[in-house]
């Protein structure tokens, strides 16, 4: 059985590697042409474009791995079937159960590879690519902005916050920060704008170039630093406090529960986040009573994505039991490509329908893989019994 395992693994790994190299070369060429024009206009040159394109390759590898596994496995198994080598292996004792066991071990290896690349390598290289782009385009990594919510309980009551971050630089500095503070009844208490901000892992915001506007005399967490800065509200001639008070502060510290991980997760696209980051961000959204449906679906899709490699290998196994003496491999490979494309389309379609219909996130993420796994096992059982 060791010889059989070595033969199957060598054939499948060689074919999958060849298919993956072809895909990566194609995507590298397309991305390089696209980035070259953009980087040339900004004066960065072809070197920066090539570096950014190379840093995108792990992300493409992660996205294309299931399809490459499917096409490479179909090609290798169909070639073994066409040359009658697989028939000889069956005659020598390679039954359906053993074949499934051998391919399951290989599929587990592909799943582990997908998890490592998707959770560790691809997010890191994608962020490095954003840094390269930021240095070439003025230092901005994200300029679409993001809104966040937070709640803080104090002896004076519960306060809620709506925070908008306009831009994020590659150095980690946030720009164009806007913070609204509300009381437990929803009345706005303060409005704070800051030119720049830095956030640590504990949720401590160090604001610079601050303008704070107050609409209440109530002591709030946002206005607490005004007492120490000597900018407490001064009464008017009649002894009353002004209705609106504005303060200019060079620096201001705000303690929140919005740590650096949550802020970066809000600014970065969901596909650029690891499974753990997605989980933490969905928990934050749920705790703030915000809609987390989209990110929960992305979390489950990311968590179950390594399982797709196992599904692809199970889809390829029935092709070893189809016997065509000539001209069969091209049709099988074409069928494998169509299966891979249909799987990707169904996976994306299920995600969009799940958001629109409000379906259970884990069921939405698992449905395409379970459907194709059932299709593969049904075809495999029929071929083993009747062919």
Would you give an account of this structure?
It is a single chain. The chain is an alpha+beta fold and 387 residues long. The protein has two domains: 2-137 and 292-386, no CATH class; 143-268, no CATH class. 60% of the residues lie in helices and 18% in strands. It has helices spanning 2-42, 46-82, 85-91, 96-136, 224-228, 260-267, 275-287, 293-316, 328-357, 361-386; strands at residues 140-142, 146-154, 157-169, 174-182, 188-199, 204-214, 245-255. Strands 1, 2, 3, 4, 5, 6 and 7 form a seven-stranded antiparallel β-sheet that branches. A hairpin with a 4-residue loop joins strand 3 and strand 4. The radius of gyration is 28 Å and the shape is elongated.
Number of strands: 7
By DSSP (H or I, 4+ residues per run), the number of helices equals 10
What integer value in Å does the Rg equal? 28 Å
Indicate the percent of residues in helices.
55-70%
- Give the strand content: 15-25%
**Structural class, judged by helices and strands?**
alpha+beta
- The dominant shape is elongated
Gap between N and C termini? 24 Å
The ordered H/E elements are: HHHHEEEEEEHEHHHHH
How would you classify the quaternary structure? single chain
Number of domains: 2
- Low-confidence runs of at least 5 consecutive residues: none
**Overall pLDDT metric:** 81
**Main sheet properties:** 7 strands, antiparallel
């Amino acid at each position: 059985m060791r010889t059989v395992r070595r033969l199957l693994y060598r054939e499948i790994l060689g074919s999958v590697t060849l298919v993956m190299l072809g895909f990566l070369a194609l995507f590298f060429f397309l991305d390089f042409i696209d980035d070259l024009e953009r980087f040339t206009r900004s004066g960065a040159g072809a070197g920066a474009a090539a570096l950014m394109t190379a840093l995108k390759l792990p992300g493409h590898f992660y996205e294309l791995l299931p399809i490459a596994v499917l096409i490479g496995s179909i090609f290798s198994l169909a070639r073994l079937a066409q040359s009658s080598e697989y028939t000889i292996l069956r005659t020598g004792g390679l039954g359906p159960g053993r074949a499934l066991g051998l391919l399951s071990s290989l599929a587990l290896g592909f799943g582990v590879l997908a998890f490592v690349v998707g959770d560790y390598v691809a997010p890191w290289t994608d962020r490095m690519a954003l840094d390269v782009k930021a240095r070439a385009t003025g230092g901005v990594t994200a300029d679409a902005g993001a809104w966040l919510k937070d709640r803080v309980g104090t002896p004076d009551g519960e306060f809620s916050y709506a925070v908008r971050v306009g831009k994020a630089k590659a150095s980690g500095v946030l720009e164009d920060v806007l913070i609204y503070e509300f009381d437990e009844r929803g009345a706005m208490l303060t409005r704070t704008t800051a030119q720049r901000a830095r956030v640590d892992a504990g949720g401590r915001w160090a604001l610079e170039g601050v303008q704070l506007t107050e609409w209440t005399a109530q002591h709030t967490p946002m206005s607490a630093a005004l007492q120490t800065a000597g900018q407490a509200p001064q009464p008017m001639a009649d002894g009353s406090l002004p209705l609106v008070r504005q303060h200019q502060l060079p620096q201001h510290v705000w303690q929140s529960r919005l740590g650096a991980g949550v802020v970066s997760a809000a600014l970065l696209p969901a596909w650029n986040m690891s499974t753990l980051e997605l989980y933490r961000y969905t928990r934050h959204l749920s705790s703030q009573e915000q809609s987390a449906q989209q990110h929960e679906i992305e979390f489950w899709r990311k968590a179950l994505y390594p399982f797709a490699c196992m599904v692809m290998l199970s889809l390829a196994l029935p092709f070893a039991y189809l016997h065509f003496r000539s001209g069969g491999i091209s049709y099988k490979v074409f069928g494998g490509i169509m299966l891979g494309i249909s799987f990707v389309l169904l996976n994306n379609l299920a995600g969009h329908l799940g958001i629109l219909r409000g379906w259970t996130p884990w069921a939405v993420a698992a449905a395409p893989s379970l459907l194709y796994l059932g299709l593969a096992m049904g075809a495999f059982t029929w071929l083993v019994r009747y062919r």
